[in-house]
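Hypothesis: this fold can be encoded by more than one sequence.
Test: take the structure tokens below, design a sequence, compare later.
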């Protein structure tokens, strides 16, 4: 039985374990450090931290954190999805999709208008994300041209894309070129 809910402080160890397991020995340590830092980062707020449970065990996590768009002064509420992880034994069963859908549902309620992501184009396009650069949004650091379509956005309020454009500025913890190499 799959249940998606907001994370609490008590979930922190489980959340970090999910990322370590999902991203593995190559990337796991870096992602765990990123998540740990973001959860305490005042510049990341408001943040949305959601966990997916199966039979009461945390098997997936998604983190959305606030971003601003330069130049300042454009009236828009925006978030970035990063990172998303599902433990290997539960992948391919809709857990990741359920976490994304619940985040988007919460944003519709909260009035978040734009959501960004840097990730697999074939995966995130299923959830409404489209290449962001062509729509007027630059990433905090240049994305290598071969991964241009991995930088994506979707609007939750019709008309925001087109009205707003510029360079995305993320939370301090994420504002490191190492996180933008994809
Ligand atoms: C990517 C990830 C979050 C997907 O979670 P999940 O619960 O397995 O995803 P879902 O069950 O919602 O969706 C599964 C579908 O996505 C597809 N998919 C998974 N990873 C994909 C990828 N890298 N590129 C394209 N499609 C992918 C699967 O093939 C499957 O397709 P199907 O429905 O046609 O069978 C999970 O595989 C994961 O944690 N991977 C390791 C960490 C990672 O790479 N995170 C993403 C960072 S951007």
């Amino acid at each position: 039985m799959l249940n998606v809910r907001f994370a609490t402080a008590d979930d922190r160890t489980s959340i970090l374990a999910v990322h370590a397991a999902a991203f593995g020995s190559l990337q796991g340590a870096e992602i765990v450090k990123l998540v740990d830092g973001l959860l305490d980062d005042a510049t990341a707020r408001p943040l949305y931290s959601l966990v997916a449970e199966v039979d009461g065990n945390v098997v997936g996590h998604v983190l959305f954190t606030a971003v601003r768009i330069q130049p300042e002064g454009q009236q828009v509420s925006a978030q970035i999805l990063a990172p998303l992880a599902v433990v290997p034994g539960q992948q391919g069963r809709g857990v990741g999709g359920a976490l994304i859908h619940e985040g988007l549902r919460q944003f519709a309620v909260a009035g978040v208008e734009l959501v960004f992501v840097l990730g697999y184009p074939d995966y995130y396009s299923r959830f409404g994300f489209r290449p962001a650069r062509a729509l007027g949004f630059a990433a905090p650091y240049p994305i290598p041209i071969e991964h241009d379509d991995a930088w994506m956005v979707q609007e939750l309020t019709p008309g925001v894309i087109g009205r707003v454009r510029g360079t995305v500025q993320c939370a301090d913890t994420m504002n490191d070129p190492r996180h933008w190499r994809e």
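Residues 22-23, 83-86, 91-97, 119-120, 122-123 surround coenzyme A (CB under 6 Å). The radius of gyration is 15 Å.
Hypothesis status: open.
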